[in-house]
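To whoever is on call:

I kicked off a structure prediction for a single chain this morning and the downstream step that reads the tokens threw a length-mismatch warning. I double-checked the sequence; it's 90 residues and nothing unusual in it as far as I can see. Pasting both halves so you can look.
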Amino acid sequence: MMEMLVYYLIAVNVPTFVIYGADKWKASRGRWRVPESVLMWLAVLGGSVGALVAMWLFHHKTLKNKFRYGVPAILAVQVAIFFIVWYYNL
């Protein structure tokens, strides 16, 4: 079970990181952008670590409160859920 979760998180976080980076690249060149709702859903679906790392690395969406506070909050909830499930499955 834990191994599958690790694979899932890798499969979600790597593309999330890449999509955030691509959106920053597109933003700096005035091109078509990834909708903010898509970026947030990627974080909600488990890509919060990739989103947070991309935000820090690319300085992307760090001034928007919904991302500045929302992505870390999503990560905190996901970590809490992980530890609750892990604790009760021991």
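Update from on-call: the warning came from a stale cache, not from the record. Cleared it. Sanity check on the structure: The two ends are 12 Å apart (CA to CA).
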